[in-house]
Amino acid sequence: TECQLAEKEFFNCIKIDVQGFELRCLKGGKQLFKRNKNLIALIEFWPKGLEQAAEDPIELLKLLRSWGFSLYWIDEYQETKKKVHNLQKLIRLARQQDFVNLLCLRK
Known about the structure:
Blueprint: H1 2-8, E1 13-16, H2 22-28, H3 30-35, E2 40-45, H4 47-52, H5 57-66, E3 69-75, E4 80-83, H6 87-97, E5 100-106
Parallel strand pairs: 1-2
Antiparallel strand pairs: 2-5, 3-4, 3-5
């Protein structure tokens, strides 16, 4: 099955955009993230959607950091990535812009 295949495969990159269910997706894919040490993740970070799904936006960010990821938000206007130092500031920025895309790289 596809799930059995995924348990044996290694991935370089994953894109997650599931309209507020990103945290559940991450928790469900925990083994995939742990097994793939060089994994790059691109995640749509939409605090309002997470809250509508009864999830805490800060928990998603803390989980990614606990798995060894450095977080960057993609500034699409300046076509660059910017390192996330302050999680609360990122949440405020994402609310102002409706969402931001996060680039998650292993430290």
